[in-house]
Design brief:
The protein contains twelve helices and 13 strands. It has helices at about 1-15, 20-70, 80-90, 110-125, 125-130, 170-220, 235-305, 310-345, 355-365, 370-375, 390-410, 470-485; strands at about 90-95, 100-105, 130, 135-145, 150-155, 160-170, 350-355, 375-380, 385-390, 420-425, 430-440, 485-490, 495-505.
């Protein structure tokens, strides 16, 4: 229950934060303030202003009539003019001559009122007197017969005639009340019109603002696809929309640049991390593999220095061992550096079309002495011509490493001891698979993946006595990974088969 109440209160708060509501309330408050001000002005100032105006009118009539009786305005039709003045201004007018005889009387009841009124103003001068001069007196007076209050002028013309004019004050008060009531009606009508105008105007102004707000929210969420629709109007909102669009484009470009820069930085960091790991791995591998040759070189060098064996043949043997181990170290370091380049993807291949069969035959011929030493037969069909597209230098190393590994591990199996090299065109006709098989022991499942690691030794067949560096298969893996081609090893019934794929030319 309290949660619903809280949501309701939150909606009300959001409603009062609305531009429409604020604009409506502002207009209503402005209208009400104006109306209240006008009512107050009417109540306290209108009557005074009205009395002031009537006083001036009364005085003007007095001057006009005085001029007539002084012979300054003989063209005036007095009676007709007096009737017009009385009707127009709601005046009661009485004119007497010097003998107190009535010359003109617009209201028969006014004559009897005049005597008491003049007597009253004399008796209560300070209270009722409004204005006084040598020729006339203006004062307030109440007619108790009808209960009406009047403003009255009592004056004397230059010719000795007397003028009396009065106007009812109640009519002024009624006018003020009517005016106030009218203003209240106007206020209600104005508020209604204001509500309609606010609805129309606010929609016109708030819709582009809401659109700009939505665009700004999208920008905050890094979505720059939405743009403000620019109209032909040259106003502040349209200019703001242009600025928002410009800012959106600049932010998008900047963020894209930052993203690109960030990706490059991440790539650089990754590369540096990889280089660092490779450096550590290189140092570790080299340190591990060079321990033995360094120890041998050190031992035989010390033997030479100490003349352990003084005969020439022994010294020659010591020197040959040192030279041999030095050459092994040199070869090992060069191979490791080349391997690192391959693993890091920094080696570019010089691909060309060549006959894979010819290359395999050349490798076999180079390994003829090793094959003869181990008394190993090689089965190979060199009559075919199969062209592939690759770097023949690195493919030669792959074949050499496979063949060298086969020579090291070939064993007699059920009276058979041989190595077989063959090429198979895979069913898709675009890939050639090169296979190198040797009879002998199978590779355990746990070693299937390990043999491709640098310096990993499955058994004694990969020891120093056989002259291996322990990185031949790691070389194969690096080269084929760069080519994004398949490679691997399969256990067969009587031995092991290594393979790799190449694109057919």
């Amino acid at each position: 229950m309290s949660q619903k109440r809280g949501k309701r209160i939150e909606r009300i708060k959001r409603l009062f934060h609305s531009v429409k509501i604020k604009l409506f309330l502002t207009l209503c408050a402005t209208v009400l303030c104006i109306i209240i001000f006008l009512i107050i002005l009417n109540s306290f100032a209108l009557e005074k202003f009205y009395l002031y105006s009537k006083e001036n009118t009364i005085k003007d009539v007095y001057k006009q009539l005085n001029d007539y009786y002084n012979g300054k305005d003989h063209e005036l039709d007095l009676e007709s003019e007096l009737e017009k003045i009385a009707i127009k201004n709601n005046f009661d007018i009485l004119i007497k001559d010097e003998d107190n005889i009535s010359i003109y009387n617009s209201n028969k009841n006014f004559y009897s009122f005049v005597g008491s009124a003049v007597t009253s103003i004399i008796n209560d001068k300070d209270k009722n007197l409004l204005e006084s001069s040598d020729k006339y007196t203006i004062f307030k007076q109440k007619d108790f017969r009808n209960g009406v209050n009047y403003i009255m002028l009592s004056g004397e013309f230059d010719n000795g005639y007397y003028l009396y004019i009065r106007i009812p004050v109640s009519s002024i008060q009624d006018s003020v009340q009517i005016s106030n009531n009218f203003l209240i009606m106007i206020a209600g009508f104005t508020i209604l019109i204001s509500a309609i105008m606010v609805s129309v105007i606010s929609r016109k102004f708030t819709e582009p603002i809401l659109e700009l707000n939505k665009i700004a929210q999208n920008m905050a969420n890094l979505d720059f696809s939405h743009k403000y629709h620019i109209s032909d109007a040259d106003d502040e909102i349209n200019n703001l929309g242009k600025s928002i669009n410009t800012m959106s484009d600049k932010l998008e470009r900047t963020i894209n640049q930052l993203r690109s820069t960030n990706i490059e930085l991440e790539r650089d960091i990754e590369e540096k991390s990889k280089i660092d790991e490779m450096r550590k791995s290189f140092i570790s591998d080299v340190s591990h593999e060079l321990k033995t040759p360094i120890a041998l070189i050190q031992g035989y060098s010390e033997g030479l220095l100490e003349n352990v064996n003084s005969d020439e043949e022994s010294r020659k043997f010591y020197a040959e061992v040192i030279l041999d181990e030095t050459n092994k170290m040199d070869r090992l370091v060069k191979q490791l550096l080349e391997l690192m380049k391959l693993e890091y993807g920094k080696r570019e291949f010089n691909n060309r079309e060549f006959n894979i069969v010819e290359l395999e035959n050349m490798v076999i011929q180079k390994s003829r002495l090793l094959l003869e030493e181990k008394n190993v037969k090689v089965i190979f069909d060199n009559n075919n011509e199969i062209n592939v597209l690759a770097d023949d230098f690195y493919i030669e190393q792959v074949i050499t490493n496979y063949l060298t590994n086969a020579i090291k591990n070939v064993k007699d199996f059920d009276g058979e001891k041989y190595i077989k090299i063959e090429n198979e065109i895979l069913p898709d006709k675009n890939v050639v698979r090169v296979k190198v098989f040797n009879t002998g022991d199978k590779i355990s499942e746990e070693n299937m993946e390990r043999i491709w690691r640098r310096f990993y030794k499955v058994d004694e067949s990969r020891n120093r006595s056989q002259g291996g560096t322990g990185i031949g298969l790691a070389f194969v893996k690096a080269i084929m990974t760069n080519y994004d081609m398949k490679y691997g090893v399969i256990n067969c019934d009587n031995g092991v088969e290594f393979y790799f794929d190449l694109n057919k030319a």
